[in-house]
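HUMAN: Now follow C-alpha cell order:
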Amino acid sequence: MKPLDRLSEYLGAIEKRLRLLALTRGIAVTAGLALTLTVLAVLVINQFAFSNPSVISARVFLFLGLAAAIGAAQVTTA
C-alpha cells in the first residue's frame, strides 16, 4: 500500500470520528434544551392549572424554541 493511500485512509477515519462527535454533541445539546424548555413550560402552565390555551401555547413555545436552536446550530456549523 502506498503511503499516500494510507494517509488518505487515516484522514478519512479521523473525518468520520469528528462527524460522529459533532452529531452526538448536537443530539445531546438538543435533548438538554428540550428538557429545559419543557420544564420551563410546565412551570408556567402550572400557574394556569393546565388550561387548554396554556397547554397549546406551551407546545408552540417548545416547538419554536427547538426549531430556533436547531436552526442556529445549523447556521453556526455551516
Q: What stands out?
A: The first helix runs from residue 3 to 46. Helices lie at 3-46, 52-77.
